[in-house]
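[audit] Reproducing an earlier prediction to check determinism. Same input, same settings, fresh worker. If the tokens differ from the archived copy the diff job will pick it up downstream; this log only records the rerun itself.
[audit] input (640 residues):
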Amino acid sequence: MINTVKQHKFFLEVTALLSVGSVVTGYTKAATPFYTHFSGPTVNSITASKLLDFAKKLGEPSPGLSQEKLAKSVGGAIALGLLQIAQKKTYQHIARELKHLAKHTQQYWLQIEHSSEGIADYEAIGEHHLRYTLAANGSDIFLKTLDLQSWEHLITWLMEQHKSHLSHGIHYYQDAIKAISQHLHKRFAHNLTEIWKQDAAKGGKVFHSMVLDLLRDGQTSAHKIAITQQDILTILKQLNTGLQDKLESIQEALEPYFDQSKTPFTISPQCESIIADTTKYFVGRTHVFEAIKEFLEKEPPGYFVLEADPGYGKTSILARCVQLFEGHCLSYFNSQSLGKVTARQFLENICTELIEYYQLDYTSLPENALRNGKVLSRLLKEASQKLPRGKKLVVVVDALNEVDLSSQTPGSNVLYLPDKLPENVYFIISKRDEKLPLPVSDNKTICNLRQYRSESAWDAGKYTNKRLSQSRFIQQWMASQKLTSEQFCTQLVAKSENNFMYLRYVLNDIHNGVYNGKTLASLPIGLWGYYKHHWQMLRINHKSLPMAQIRAIYVLSKVREPVSCRLLAKLTGVEESVLSTFLEQWDQFLQVQIIDNETRYSIYHGSFHDFLEKQSADSGVNLEELKRGIVENLAKGAPL
């Protein structure tokens, strides 16, 4: 196989530029092209020489860019194609094997990078095959790489590397190989763009480095690509804020504590989904990361406890923390919307990861590992003894308030977390600002976001401004009220009471036209006010809204797992087709998943659970009766 790093660097340089609009600004628009050879007229007072001066300031070469990271991006794009085919009903019988192959694809691709086997099959990846065009709409990206036959060769080669994990011979998978190859032949560039989006979402260290390299390198093909002036200015503005430098300095300070020679921990698809969703528009919070850095640097083994009221960004902060650690930490996100709420689920996940990652001497989970925290404590100690000198084992656990304590032994710590941690073992956990049975640890650092009101207000403003810059619909709504961007952000943040969940909902509503014809002054105040306003509007617009349909929302709030329309229909007496239409009206509050080829629903955020419970009397819902009905139906074997 050929060494494709040089060729893929060209590919990724192209993709980075094609992605400037969609990844960084979030939208693209037709505009006068700015041909980026970085010589020519001044662009909004930023001259070409200033661009180059800025690039030089950041040093050469870019520390975030390496051949291995470039290769991993390509491997990740191939893996994404495997996962997309695995989701198709036609390949359900081999979905597990395809997902397992996807998990190892980056590793296999790195083997390709360092191998000389099969050169003839993959020469088509060379620069002369990387023809590209950029349409006026930046989403219309077409970048051809391998021909179909070469993709089939490549996917077959990947299967052969993975054959010890396959249930059948390679010939059994021929249909799947063709389907994967056809998908990648058409969609590889789009998949690669998604990989860059993920990188940009977690700070964009590699993505930013790629763009800076393009600024430095006048010999690339960048001059062939038309990019709008605003795209260039936006990305440079983001790179030059100093905020990214701050986060990178924190990240670099933490790197010595992790064993960089080992691959990152496995992150489950559910956790990956949470991380991607909650960090999509992430900004700021450097004060929290500074506190975490200081905790890991200066404190003995213990717990860092992040506390905040609902909607203030606990989950997004911990998700961003996992990204800053680049996966070199164990992570677990409790989530009622995903049905992950028991200590048993937590122990099974973390104990299994410890055994596999640190190659502890167990062929399976030890007996009683899921009954209490004794086995977890033992495994943490054994894992800590395998740490290289100066390294740390960090476990990130989110949303302790969503744990079902009734599933645990009375009086036990939440999730059976150990009171005493071994040397070099640290937990970073989050919870609401309310009482929970936490471990009785000698070292517990509490970080309550109430202490950072001014910082939270600043970050909420940055978040609002970021969303504003990425939506022309929000910009149009703001302009219709003759507001400046500063006025818009300041007033909306005040309405939100610094609550990020409020901002997420309201900005989505403005983008979708819900508040067309309304003024900013008329918007509800605070997250609770937003829920109440939405509830009232639904009742006004649907005066004959049947109680059975209202009960469906309450069922979702009480069942601790994603629920199918079948169960909702059984519990409410409403036809499934009617329920589906009704649930669409609550779309922004729901998490929708496909489980076993069936759509299931759950409440997206815990604060909405709280609202529904307080609203139950006014809604005419008897919660105790509802709970009994749920328990009785599940006891009879009703499907979720």
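[audit] rerun output stored. Observation attached for the diff report: The chain is about 50% helix and 10% strand.
[audit] end
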